[in-house]
Amino acid sequence: MEGRAITIESRKNRKIKISIIPGHFATNHSHINYYIDMTKIKTSHKMAKDAAAQIAATYSSTPIDTIICMEGTEMLGAFLAESLSSDGINQGEDVSVITPELNSNNQMIFRDNIQKQIWGKRVLLLISSVSTGKTINRAIECLNYYNGELVAISSIFSAISESNRIPVHSVFTPDDINGYQTFVQHECPMCQAGQKVDAIVNSFGYSKI
C-alpha cells in the first residue's frame, strides 16, 4: 500500500508536506478514497513549527486563551501557541495548550485541575483531520458543559469549510487532493461495487485488512 503513496506540498509553504494513498478506507464515521498520512507534521518539530505559523496567521485578530489539541496535535498546538503569542492581538499572552480525556463512553472530559483553562475561556479547537464534523460536534458539547467559548477551529486537513457557523481553517483541503471523496458507510460506492476495504484508519494511523 505504501508504494502508492504520493507526497503533497502545502501551496503556501513547500516545506509542509503530507502523504496520500489512494484506495478504500474506513474511519469511525465514514468511508474515504484516500488515506492521508500526517505523521511528519505531527512528529517533525521543524514541519510542525512551519505549519503552526501558517495557521497562526489566520488568527492575528482573534483573541484566543486556550488551544484544545485532538488526535495527536500536541506538538503542533504548542508551536501554534508560541506563534499566536508572538504577533497580533494575542502578542505577549500566555496561551494554554490542553488535551481532553476520553471516558468509557468515548465522551470528552477534563479533570478539575484543567477545567480552569476552559471555564470562560476563548478556545481554539485543533484537530488533525476533519471529514464529517462529528468530532467537532462532540467537542462543542464538551465545551458547552465546561462553559468554554469555541472561537476558532483549525486542522491539518479538512474536508469541510465550516462547522456550526465557525470557519474551519486547514493547512490542506480537498482542493489539494484531486478527487478526494468521503461517504457515509451505507452510501459508499466502493462498497456497493464490491471493492475491498484496504485498511481501517484513525488519527493514530492505519491497520491493513
Short note summarizing the structure:
This protein is an alpha/beta fold and 209 residues long.
Fold and architecture overview:
The protein has 209 residues and is of the alpha/beta class. Helix content is 23%, strand content 33%. The chain has six helices and 14 strands. It has helices spanning 39-43, 45-56, 74-84, 112-115, 134-145, 189-192; strands spanning 6-9, 17-26, 31-37, 66-69, 96-98, 101-102, 108-109, 122-130, 149-158, 162-163, 166-172, 182-183, 199-202, 205-208. A hairpin with a 4-residue loop joins strand 2 (17-26) and strand 3. The longest helix has 12 residues, at 45-56.
- Globular, elongated, flat, extended or rod-shaped: what is the shape? globular
Q: How many runs of DSSP E, i.e. beta strands?
A: 14
Largest sheet: 6 strands, mixed
Tally of individual helices: 6
Q: Compute the gyration radius: what is it?
A: 17 Å
Helix-strand topology string: EEEHHEHEEEHEHEEEEHEE
The stretches of 5 or more residues where confidence is low (pLDDT under 50) are none
Strand content: 25-35%
Amino- and carboxy-terminal Cα gap: 11 Å
- Helix/strand/pairing category: alpha/beta
Mean pLDDT: 93
Helical residue percent band? 10-25%
